[in-house]
Amino acid sequence: MKIICVANQKGGIGKSTLITVLAGALSADYGYRVLVVDADSQQTLAGVRLTNDQPSVEQERLAGTLSEPAFPYTLESVGMGQVYDRLDEVGDDYDVVFIDVPGRSDDTAMIDVLSGANVVLVPVGASDAERLATISFMQLLQEISRLSREQGLDFQFFGVHSHRTNLKEEKDMDEFTDALGLPRLQASLRQLGCYKRLSTRYSYLNPAYRRAVGADASVEAEVRALCDELIARAQLTSELVS
Questions:
Q1: What residue ranges define each of the domains in the chain, with the CATH number in brackets?
Q2: Euclidean distance between CA atoms 8 and 120, whole angstroms
Q3: For 29-64, what is each residue's pLDDT tens digit?
Q4: Among 8, 69, 96, 98, whose Cα sits 20 to 30 Å from the Cα of 203?
Q5: With the CA atoms of 121, 157, 26 and 98 taken in that order, what torsion angle do they form, in degrees rounded to the nearest 10?
Q6: Entry's Pfam families (predicted)?
């Protein structure tokens, strides 16, 4: 099991969107057994499933048109202090676990969750506020990485543009993080309206779903590129890929 935490101390930077895109594709299209742990007090992912997705599931079930399973991956709400107790209970059932955490890094429970992950993905923005928050947070991850190496633990972290728009500020951010030696994924998600129409039922690699949310042809390519790079960098078991 690989544990992937998606975190940034700046709120509203795309953590839940990134998890939704990756979890849906890796489970529905790549064949991984995926668990998503919503440990964020805002409960964005749990809210999407309960408010947006569950009613349509019930309608399909009543009409006798529901295809099982209704959801491609398991989603659980777990308190920050209980995350790893829960993973100890269910770890053998999953290949990949994504953890959505609150937008703060000054809490002991938060640091414990980050330290126990194999990979931390840090959604990266380009505004001054996003830049300052991201740099500070990634420097914290550098320290966790140093301590993990000393203990022989598997720990990596990467910045990832979850709403890239090709602004000059984004290129400046890339150069700045590269100069600091902060790693980042080359693949990114563009700031497209379709990513704001979140669903925990469907993958953006599904042509019917892309048509339903008005996604253009580039969406499949960028989602697949992001999944492929994460699989390689996080060393997910390649035999599972369909």
A1: 2-231 (3.40.50.300)
A2: 9
A3: 999 999 999 998 888 899 999 998 999 999 999 999
A4: 8
A5: -60
A6: CbiA (PF01656)
